[in-house]
Design goal:
Elements (H helix, E strand, L loop, with lengths): L7 H14 L7 H7 L40 E8 L12 H9 L4 E9 L6 E3 L3 H10 L3 E8 L4 H15 L10 E5 L6 H5 L3 H17 L4 E6 H6 L11 E5 L13 E8 L9 E8 L15 E8 L4 E6 L6 E7 L7 E6 L3 E4 L7 E11 L5 E3 L7 E4 L5 E6 L3 E4 L6 E5 L4 E9 L5 E9 L2 E8 L3 E8 L4 E4 L8 E5 L4 E9 L5 E8 L5 E7 L5
Parallel strand pairs: 1-2, 2-4, 4-5, 5-6, 6-7, 7-8
Antiparallel strand pairs: 1-9, 2-3, 8-9, 10-11, 11-14, 12-13, 12-15, 15-16, 15-17, 18-21, 18-24, 19-20, 21-22, 22-23, 24-27, 25-26, 27-28, 28-29
Length: about 525
Amino acid sequence: MVYKRQNIKKITAVILAAIVSLAFMPAFTADAFAASSLPDDPQAPAAASSASKTTSAVTAKAVSSPTIPAQFSGYKAYYGPDISYYNSSTGTFLTTKQWANIKAAGYKFAIIRVGYRGLTSGGLYPDSGFAQNIQSARAAGLKVGVYFFSQALSVSEAKAEANKTLELIEPYKSYIDLPVVMDYEYQKNGRLTTSKPSTAVKTKAVNAFFGVIEDAGYTPMLYASRSFLENSLNAEDIDSSGEIWLAQWASSTSYSGDFSFWQWTDAGTISGFSGKVFDLNAWYTKDVHQYDMSYEKQKPTGLSQSARTGTSVTLTWTAARKADSYTIYRSDTYTGTFVKVGTSTGTSFKNTGLTPGREYYYKITASGTDYTGTAITSGKTSGYERAYSTAPYKTVVRLKETADLYKRPNTTTLTSIAGGTKLTSITKSKDKNGEYWYRVEYTSDGTTYNGYLQASNLTLTRTGTTKQKVNLRKSATTSSTKILTLAKGVTVTIRGTKKDSAGDTWYKVTYKKSSSKTYKGYVFGSYIK
């Protein structure tokens, strides 16, 4: 990723060739024109990481490999260059023949620069030949990854770089089957070097780039030198969803952290490229297809409950890239086992047959087909979503004694609630141990908490209101003796439930007509709310 200085004559040739190449750019005409002048492009060697980026004696004709690091014993090593327009003799892109030479030399992949942030101005620019390089590399039979040269000074700038990367590669997404990379490094007089953002800020910037790229369905990766990883980032705080591409120019690496790609030289030579040197990289893996079409394996997002009834919940979510269908899983208990409950070809699903007033837990996976027609199911599920069916009556809970209110059943304590306190239940949940919990809302000293109380410490009072005139009967059947007729809007206390021979629900209730007269009997459940 560290580029060589160009003499004036060559720079002139680069600019002229880039302008001529505009006629052949398949997309991004405006961006390509901006790139033709290559404004503020980082060409100087990295200044602050020279301690780890020492020039090595290792060069390559075809594939002359470095020492495989000990942690990759049993892994397969694959090799490939990283490419930008600098590698082209015309300063634009490699020709079809040149890409064929790379493949013939034994290389299996290429990682192609698609753009960069200006070294001092901070503008975002495309690499002038990235589109042709991506397409030609894939046509030659190489796996393709892409990178964006970053000089991000903040989370917002890192996100902007990630979004620019996605914009640039969108027309070529079917060609990309390796990670999408943030190339983060110091350059002499560059804005990252002169502004000196803190280690914490740079670490957050990396995670922000990762988040945008992962949400788009790609595997994110960071390119950085050993020195940068060890001294300029909190490597242990980098999101584990991304991977590391280590730059250390030596025949063996001394970096002790995790990585999966290693740039071991900037002086490799490839047959068919007279007078040209390349950055060469090793990729260590047990599965050469581990990133294939990763953009189609996007984790579904935005899962939420959009509607509910007493016996159903309706879920909606955000469409995953290239997904043809979704599989919906449900657990009836907190931290319980998820089982498949249905599929959907859209972005919603109605789950029926539920118990009224119960909380359930859902997650989904996405499925689709890649550009070869191969069926793919996402390796990642959405985060789980709590959803609950509507309770047909109101439940008031009273604590028998002082107890903790939990964020989730028997997990983080939110606050303590005094014994004797009465609260209205939102819904009822069950954990994997069979214990019931009630979710309630509780306000104390101006702070409102939404959490769970264990049922065994609660006294329950359930009340309902008649929707219309309804008969109070001696037993749970319409043929039973009528005790009296309840008017619409009457409140009754629910003591229990019972199913009749047809499977319909009846409530066992008490009705206090006056201070001295209380009636007990059964009311048909459909008439109570």
